[in-house]
Write a structure and sequence with these properties.
The structure holds two protein chains of two kinds. By secondary structure, chain A is of the alpha/beta class. Chain A is built from twelve helices and ten strands. By secondary structure, chain B is mostly helical. Chain B contains 20 helices and two strands. In chain B, helix 7 runs parallel beside helix 13 and helix 8 packs across helix 16. The chains are: A alpha/beta, B mainly alpha.
Chain lengths: 280, 426
């Protein structure tokens, strides 16, 4: 648990409608600083929609999303659109079906992630075009950071290979490394353990714990793999049909009857009771 | 795959070969009957008359039959292993030699005016090839690096040419002042095109850029009072050697350097001028590729959404790609105007855009050397077959098909990473 209970992300009455479909209905939750917060729920519960609202890919129909930086600055994410969420508010994300720059090398993927810092250092390409010293220093710093994250994710031997040639698990780790290279305050991971085997899942857990412990970065993740969720999360939010049905520590969530019902359905003998309630 | 092909060729698959050949012949029958078998001609009374050419038709169908039969017999039904037609030892030699290809080509280009000083035709051809090399390199920024399929690149070539022509004829500005101005104006039009197409990709982008190219041409054609319409702009000032004109007079280039006047001086100067402009394009592209902006272009080509998730402003990234690509097109355009001395909208048709795009695709998108070689092959090939006017397009099309089977991703398809960690690893 975090030392001081201080919210980093406050989602307040968030709703997202696509035409007549209400994908997210009045969802509120709080993620604490340096916590790992998990967002879980059955398929189609609206988890990724919440994610897309937080990371600026969707503009929510209603609600506030407030991000508080450690230095006290606060941003209303629903007002920042598109790339500005990543650039200004420093929220990094990964994607459910990875989006790597497959034709570029692993190292290039990590350097592209440091685009904004390098762009400033190269004076919008003019200093870089003539190879000024200030740019070369910045580039070498960028390479150092890439080197650090390659080392952390065990991708150092593959640094100069095309990202598309990596194995599936390596690609997952590369996407996290790439997100970390943007220097985020909040790291949002959309199903980071999907398609990983047990050993790779354990490695992922270790990596996420390392990121939280050493860099103090708060993590918000969507995950179906309960071995990951229950082991590393400090806080779990459960969605079902676009509505928040539970919110609490892993132990509380594990025993919550609503969550069990949402995941496993209800017992046979309860069906009659429920049918009676709805008037069948 | 290779075993299968080998096995089938050992047993000589006569039956499948016959079957394939019959099918191909049937298709050829359907196609050629109306296109070649029948022919309408104006008869003596002025009415159309149908004449038949069944011998030619039968010959072509027989040719298709034989070709298809032999193909299946020799290569089997799979793809033709063109790669293995070249022995690996030779392929390795070619690969190791290709490292020297770029410096060798550059030295050759520098020596062309010395070697062929007497041959005016070859010098003119060299200037033409280099113009297309420069256009290819300019378009390569937009298509090869940023992955934005632009079918209207000739528009910027036209903007550059008309900017130079109008500025030079109305305000009597020198070439060296007009050149950057033409580049800036072309870049401005590049941004103007960029704005409406920000959300488009692939086929949709291609259609809009195609339309943009046509709009520019039609405006040039119809705005009679400004551009001269179909008559174009003539007597555009010819280039001077940094103020010294190429003429047989006092104060001219040859007079100053104590040389005997020769019209070839100007051609040689133009040759080195376009070579320098092309090399500038190349240098800037190579530098930009290793800068954050160049890497952002390539990243955008790979995945635009991922770029946004990393905080990259895809709007400005796209617009800079359009602007810089257009700027080099504008430079090439103003060179074209000063070289020709006369321009009209006829020089800026869709055919030019298609040719430049073909050079980029044939050379291998993103490869500087490939684009240069492709420009040389395409324009050199055009000239080589000028004698056989009738078969020129046939040979050209056939060669394109062969190259695309042999090298589907262009002549030079390998991508050189913009930076390495290699030396740090050791």
């Amino acid at each position: 648990m975090s030392a001081a209970a201080e919210p980093i992300l406050t989602v307040d009455r968030l709703s997202m409608r696509f035409g007549g479909l209400i994908a997210v209905d009045d969802v509120s939750f709080v993620a604490q600083r340096s916590d790992i917060t998990a967002l879980i729920g059955p398929n189609g519960a609206g988890k990724t929609t919440v994610f897309n609202c937080i990371t600026g890919f969707y503009k929510p129909s209603a609600g506030l999303i407030r991000l508080q930086h450690p230095d006290g600055r606060a941003y209303l994410l629903e007002r920042l659109l598109n790339f500005r969420v990543a650039k200004v508010a420093r929220v990094a994300r990964t994607f459910q079906n990875m989006r790597l720059f497959a034709g570029m090398t692993v190292l290039e993927n990590l350097v592209v992630a440091q685009h904004n810092a390098l762009m400033r250092a190269s004076a919008f390409s003019f200093a870089g075009l003539f190879g000024l010293k200030s740019y070369r220093t910045a580039e070498s710093a960028a390479l150092d950071k890439a080197h650090y994250w390659l080392d952390r994710t065990g991708l150092l031997p593959r640094a100069d290979d095309p990202a598309g040639s990596l194995a599936y698990g390596e690609q997952r780790r590369l996407e996290i490394a790439r997100a970390m290279c943007t220097d985020p305050v909040l790291l949002c991971l959309d199903e980071p353990a999907a398609g990983l085997n047990a050993r790779e899942s354990a490695e992922l857990n270790a990596l996420l714990k390392f990121i939280r412990r050493e860099h103090g970065i708060s993590i918000l993740l969507i995950e179906h793999d309960m071995s990951v969720v229950m082991e590393i999360s400090d806080h779990i939010v459960v969605l079902d049909y676009g509505v928040k049905i539970a919110d609490g520590t892993p132990e509380a969530i594990r025993n919550d009857p609503k969550v069990i019902a949402a995941y496993l359905g209800i017992e046979d003998d309860e069906v009659e009771k429920v049918e009676a309630e709805v008037g069948l | 795959m290779s075993n299968e092909a080998a096995r089938s060729s050992r047993t000589l698959p006569l039956l499948p070969a016959l079957k394939d050949a019959t099918l191909s012949a049937l298709v050829a029958c359907g196609l050629f009957f109306f296109m070649i078998g029948l022919r309408t001609e104006q008869g003596s009374t002025g009415a159309l008359e149908i004449t038949t050419r069944f011998e030619t038709f039968a010959m072509l169908v027989a040719l298709v039959f034989a070709g298809s039969f032999l193909r299946t017999l020799v290569f089997g039904r799979g793809p033709i292993p063109l790669g293995r037609a070249i022995p690996p030892s030779l392929a390795r030699q070619v690969a190791s030699a290709s490292r020297f290809a770029a410096p060798a080509l550059l030295i050759f280009a520098l020596l062309v005016p010395v070697l062929f000083y007497q041959n005016r035709y070859l010098l003119d051809l060299g200037i033409l090839v280099l113009t297309y090399v420069m256009l290819g390199w300019g378009l390569n920024i937009v298509v090869g690096l940023a992955g934005l399929l632009d079918l209207g690149y000739v528009a910027f070539y036209a903007v550059g040419a008309y900017s130079y022509a109008l500025l030079a004829t109305h305000f009597h500005l020198s070439f060296w002042i007009c050149l950057p101005l033409a580049g800036i104006l072309a870049a401005f039009w590049g941004v103007l095109l960029g704005f409406p197409v920000l959300r488009l990709r692939g086929d949709y982008l291609a259609i809009v850029t195609l339309a943009f190219g046509e709009i520019i041409r039609l405006v040039l054609l119809n705005w009679q009072s400004f551009t001269g319409g179909p008559n174009g702009i003539s007597s555009i000032p010819r280039p001077s050697f940094f103020g010294l004109p190429f003429a047989d007079a006092e104060g001219s280039f040859s007079w100053t350097f104590g040389l005997e006047y020769s019209p070839t001086h100007r051609v040689v100067f133009l040759f080195y001028l376009i070579l320098a402009l092309a090399l500038l394009t190349n240098w800037v592209t190579i530098r930009l590729r290793r800068l954050p902006i160049g890497r952002a272009w390539e990243a955008m080509r790979e995945d635009e959404i991922a770029c946004r998730s990393l905080g990259i402003n895809t709007t400005t990234t796209k617009l800079t790609a359009f602007a810089i690509g257009a700027m080099f097109g504008g430079f090439a355009g103003s060179f074209f105007a000063t070289r020709q001395g006369f321009i009209s909208p006829e020089s800026f048709t869709f055919g030019e855009s298609a040719l430049v795009l073909a050079i980029v695709v044939l050379g291998g998108m993103g490869s500087q050397l490939g684009v240069a070689v492709a420009a040389l092959v395409m324009l050199g090939g055009f000239e080589l077959f000028r004698e056989f006017q009738l078969y020129r397009m046939l040979v050209f099309g056939f060669a394109m098909v062969l190259i695309m089977i042999w090298r589907p991703r262009g002549l030079v398809s390998t991508r050189e990473p913009s930076l390495y960690l290699g030396e740090r690893k050791t």
